[in-house]
Amino acid sequence: MNGKHDFSILINSLSGGGAERQVYYLDHHLKASSIFVLQDGLDYDIEKSKIQMLGPGKGGAIGRIIQLLVAPFHLKMTISSPLIVSFLEISNFINVLAKVFFRSHKALVSVRISPHFYDKKKFGGVMKYLMKKIYPYADLVTCNSIDCKKDLIDLIPGLEKKIDVIPNGLDLERVKKMAQEECEFPNPSKFSLVMVNRLSHQKNIGPMMKILKSLKESADVELIILGDGLLKEALLELCIKLSLKVGSSFDDKDCDVYFMGFVSNPYKYLSKADTFVLSSFYEGLPNVVLEAMACGLPIISSDCKTGPREILSQDNYKNGSYEQDFGILLPIPDDSNLDLWIEEILKLIRDSKLREHYSSQSLLCSKKYDVKSVTMQWQQVIEKVLA
């Protein structure tokens, strides 16, 4: 697929992350003229010559304020494209401000997570205020989930005519190829739960340790965690407190929890595990769920804002039931509902037909998010803005 229109991309950085991967897909398929970033780092196969830094490239609140002030002018001096597609709030603000100040381009902004994400964040009120004041001046806003769109409209009444929903894309061919890489689990007889997470507060991993502790009383089960983060030491301490044996690689045999750290190919683990678990407090449209589905894994997820309900029910949400068409959807885990999580996981452990059903449903659902289809949606909105 070749891009037919001249556009540039603006994003905070190109270091990891779901939004960053979507930028990679967008550039790979539609060929952006240039990519502007606010911070150093490149984790994707993007032509370096088209990447340009805006502002000082330093993080922190002061750095972000400086970028908001300086970057629109820098953008004006360097941009030649008639359209900038931006991702994530700071980049979105810069994109729209540059458009308003200089009228040099059209601004298409992509919101990757519900405004409610900022409710309990430091300076979250400021972020929501800026969204309310700045986003109405964008030419078009995209959200990656229907719930995110609803929340954005609640925050900014009247914006609904400017919002389109484009889900995250998934390179199914790449996932299938990488999933074939050899990987031998250390305890083949154990039922393996797998998580792919930053070890952060958002991901709410602690309750899963307590759930695992109770599951071990009824089943031979292990938890494999792919990812790293600031809460690793706290999670290790919790494991010790719960008398869970911890391993850091598959060389460690007969462990209860494996902290594998960052892995370059998560698909070889996902394709060989038994069930995928997401326990987050909030998401955007979680790529990890889509990736696990593409690997044929049954999904158990918290019913958090936003994305899991949309993915697992596909416009057919069954109120009062945890078993949705494409996976199991449970309340965000905490000490009050751990028994429910344990019960639902045990159902999957004990019922091979139920696992097979959700495995086939995952593969079916993942096809909706194929990057080729999603890229066509991006091309359509780009054409609409430039028309």
Task: Please tell me the total number of domains.
Answer: 2
Mean pLDDT: 93
Question: Which strand order spans the largest sheet, edge to edge or round the barrel?
Answer: 10-11-9-8-12-13-15-14
Outline type: elongated
How many helices does DSSP assign? Answer: 14
Strand content range:
15-25%
CATH topology of the largest domain: Rossmann fold
Approximate helicity band: 40-55%
Question: Could you give a quick summary of the protein structure above?
Answer:
The protein is an alpha/beta fold.
Describe this structure in words.
An 8-stranded mixed beta sheet has the order 10-11-9-8-12-13-15-14, sandwiched between helices. The chain has a 7-stranded parallel beta sheet with strand order 3-2-1-4-5-6-7, with helices on both faces. With 387 residues, the protein is of the alpha/beta class. The chain has helices spanning 18-30, 60-78, 89-102, 124-134, 146-155, 172-179, 206-215, 232-241, 267-270, 287-294, 308-313, 338-350, 352-366, 371-386, and strands at residues 8-11, 35-37, 51-53, 83-87, 106-111, 140-143, 163-165, 191-196, 221-226, 246-247, 257-261, 275-278, 299-302, 323-324, 327-330. It has 2 domains: 8-169 and 370-386, Glycogen Phosphorylase B (Rossmann fold); 173-369, 3-Layer(aba) Sandwich (Rossmann fold). The two termini are 20 Å apart. The protein is elongated, with a radius of gyration of 21 Å. Helix 1 packs across helix 14 (371-386) and helix 7 packs across helix 12.
